[in-house]
Amino acid sequence: TERTNRVIKTAIRSYIKDNHRHWDREIAKIGFALRTATHDTTKVSPAFLNFGRNPKKSGAEHRLDVSGHEVPDPVEPEGYSLSIRKLQDIYKDVEVRLHQAYERSKRSYNLRHRPQVY
């Protein structure tokens, strides 16, 4: 959590710059940036891991029909099935990467650890 808090503080600082009065207006942008940033360990964003896709970044990326309702991208059953299989492979890959990162952290943390005898 300390690392996460450090990242959040850095993001807030980068968005508010010198105007500290209205930092709360930037919270949605900061949250979006954190959720869509590619993680060093997983190589994908948290949003992608949760939803299987990265969210649209601007209104221009949304397609609207004449009545103003969003038109979903056409998805064929075969394409959807393929994307689900790819997502399962990505989850397995992320699990392996997280375990490797855990082992690296564990090794460096325990580098100077000496067993205690009581």
TrEMBL record:
InterPro entries: RNaseH-like_sf, RNaseH_sf
Sequence ranges of Basic and acidic residues compositional bias: 58-72
Single GO MF annotation: nucleic acid binding
Signal sequence range: none
Region Disordered: start-end pairs: 56-77
SUPFAM superfamilies: Ribonuclease H-like (SSF53098)
Transmembrane segments: none
Protein name per Swiss-Prot or TrEMBL: Gypsy retrotransposon integrase-like protein 1
Native species: Lygus hesperus
High-level lineage: Eukaryota, Metazoa, Ecdysozoa, Arthropoda, Hexapoda
